[in-house]
Every structure is written in structure tokens, then in C-alpha cells.
Amino acid sequence: MSMNIFRLCGDMSHVFSILVLLLRLRVAKNAAGISLRTHELFLLVFITRYTDLFTTYYSLYNSVMKVLYIGSTANIVYAIRATEPICSTYEKSQDTFRHVEFAILPCLVLATMTHFLSGEGSGLDLFRNIQEWLWMFSIYLESIAILPQLIVLQRYREVENLTGNYIFFMGAYRALYILNWIYRAYYEPGYRHHYVVYLCGVLQTALYLDFFYYYIMSKRRGGRFSLPTTTK
């Protein structure tokens, strides 16, 4: 994948979001308002997407970023699950999205249909076939991995400053990657379009739109960031 300003800014936004969350956990030693399930989903995304880490070398930058994403997300999951006093402040009762039934399993089915039934795996050896299938699974899963976190925030309503910044930069990362795809389509000779990736990227960005609106409004007002009460 070629480098351009949109991809670089997207990657840096992603890294910054993770660092902000790690800072929140390690300094405040508090996991209130953080969804463990979202980060377990993101960890699964990175593990299944980067199966080529030890088989194909693209660049030092590419390898470092992959290791950083896996390692930092694993650190977040471990901190919330097993590091005191952080794990004692995690409210499991608020983090109830059924991520196996409504995220992992549907994405496995979609990845199987897209990869095998479309014939994309034909002509590949078994290992390469599995890699491509897992990569497709990770694309689908990443598009909805933030859902448990957004649901937790809606239940808390009051959003802690660092948590709000973390989610904002996560959303900015995906929005910048959409600009990256547009840029590459126009300026990169032989660029291969992948419409499933586009669709999932747009879906992922759309999930953040409501959050973006209230985040920006709170910054303009200079007050505490809170989400509106859901009305029936």
C-alpha cells in the first residue's frame, strides 16, 4: 500500500486514539465507560487481518504498525480484564452487547459468502485461502466493532474527556482512510478497487456521525460532553 498524506494522518489518528485510551487506563486507573467487548473485537480484527506479519514483508513502517496495533490492543484488553485496580472499575453490567452472536458469527458468515462463494479463493493454496478469508472477516468485523462502546456511552451519557477524545480519533482514522481510498483511486496507477472494503469503511464511519456531532458541539460550548437521553 502506497503512502499519502491521508493514510499517514489516518494511521497517526488511530495510534493517537489508542495512546489516549492507554493513558486514561494507566493514569486514571479507571475503566468506567470503556467497553471491553469493543476492544476484544478490535483485537480479533488485528489478529485475523495481520496473519501475513511473519510471512510477507512490505516495509518497516507496515510491520511496526501491525505489531503496535496488536500489542497495544492486547494491553488494553489485559488491563481491563486482569489489572487492578482497573479491572475492579469495569462495569460489566453496562457492557452487554452480545458480540459473539451479533458481530463475530454474522461476520464469519458474510466473509465465507464473499470469499468462497464469489470464487475469490479459487486458484490459491490452502494457507493463502485461509489468510484471504480471515482478512475479509476482519474487514466486516472492524466495521461494527465500535458498537459495544457506543452503546456503553449511551448508557452512561456523561462522557469522560479522554474517552471522548479516544473515540473521536478512532472515527477520524476511518474517515481519513476513505479520503485515502479516493486519493489512491485518482492518483495511483493500477489501483485495485475493493468495494466490500469501501462499503464497510463507510458503514464504520457512519456509526460515528452522531457521536461526532455531540462531541464537536460540546467542544464549541466548552462544557462537559454528554449524550442526549434516548426518548421513546
UniProtKB/TrEMBL annotation:
Its main location: endoplasmic reticulum. The chain crosses the membrane at residues 57-80, 100-118, 133-153, 165-183, 195-216. It is found in: Endoplasmic reticulum membrane. One of its GO terms (biological process) is protein transport. It comes from the Eukaryota. It is a multi-pass membrane protein. Keywords: Endoplasmic reticulum, ER-Golgi transport, Membrane, Protein transport, Receptor, Transmembrane, Transmembrane helix, Transport. Coiled coil: none annotated. The keyword Cell membrane does not apply. GO terms for cellular component: endoplasmic reticulum membrane. It holds the Pfam family ER_lumen_recept. InterPro entries: ER_ret_rcpt. Belongs to the ERD2 family. This is ER lumen protein-retaining receptor. The lineage of its organism: Eukaryota, Sar, Stramenopiles, Ochrophyta, Bacillariophyta.
